[in-house]
Design a protein that fits this description.
The complex is a heterodimer of chains A (about 110) and B (about 120).
Chain A (H helix, E strand, L loop, with lengths): L3 E4 L2 E4 L5 E7 L5 E8 L3 E10 L2 E4 L7 E2 L9 E3 L8 E8 L8 E2 L3 E5 L1
Parallel strand pairs in A: 2-11
Antiparallel strand pairs in A: 1-3, 3-8, 4-5, 4-9, 5-6, 7-8, 9-10, 9-11
Chain B lengths: L4 E3 L2 E5 L4 E6 L6 E7 L5 E8 L4 E4 L2 E6 L4 E6 L8 E13 L2 E8 L3 E6 L1
Parallel strand pairs in B: 2-11
Antiparallel strand pairs in B: 1-3, 3-8, 4-5, 4-9, 6-7, 7-8, 9-10, 9-11
Classes of the chains: A mainly beta (about 110), B mainly beta (about 120).
Amino acid sequence: EAQVTQNPRYLITVTGKKLTVTCSQNMNHEYMSWYRQDPGLGLRQIYYSMNVEVTDKGDVPEGYKVSRKEKRNFPLILESPSPNQTSLYFCASGTGSNPDIQYFGAGTRLSVL
Amino acid sequence: SQQGEEDPQALSIQEGENATMNCSYKTSINNLQWYRQNSGRGLVHLILIRSNEREKHSGRLRVTLDTSKKSSSLLITASRAADTASYFCATRTDFNAGGTSYGKLTFGQGTILTVHP
């Protein structure tokens, strides 16, 4: 089954404790992206990757890091999480380096205390 | 305010009725898309309409695009309880950086649709 898989689905952590949210897709997509969803703000893009080793900032990249060493994986790293990073995070992927349509994972709900 | 703004923020109807959601945007777009999000799940792509198209249909979905008014509407006909979800419009704008063309997808805040059995 074609899918975008995020782990974990739920995470509660404390301020300053480094964490990684993994994202994997099995559709051989070149493009991958991370979004955060907050009430009243919709989805905002954090980082995106147009292919392996090609990443760039989205609208809200501060406090996040990403890497794209393999085509299928695009982990999101929070080096020193803060409470304002409490949010619902989505990973997405798409065909080609510049896709029209994106396919989303089920989401990771993160709480930073 | 954001590129994509949706109206209404929430809509409650009875099964069998039609549901109409609207999206307005500010800048020129390449295309406009609608996505659905069921509670606790990721977004699922529903339909895409390009800037040179005015209307598109997919099953019970009808999307219109008026580029002169920078607005779009999504109509769901004969709604079902299973249509209960949040619906987001997303506009794609293209820009050039370093000689390469990039497409940026910007999402609205969404309309929460509740269909009562």
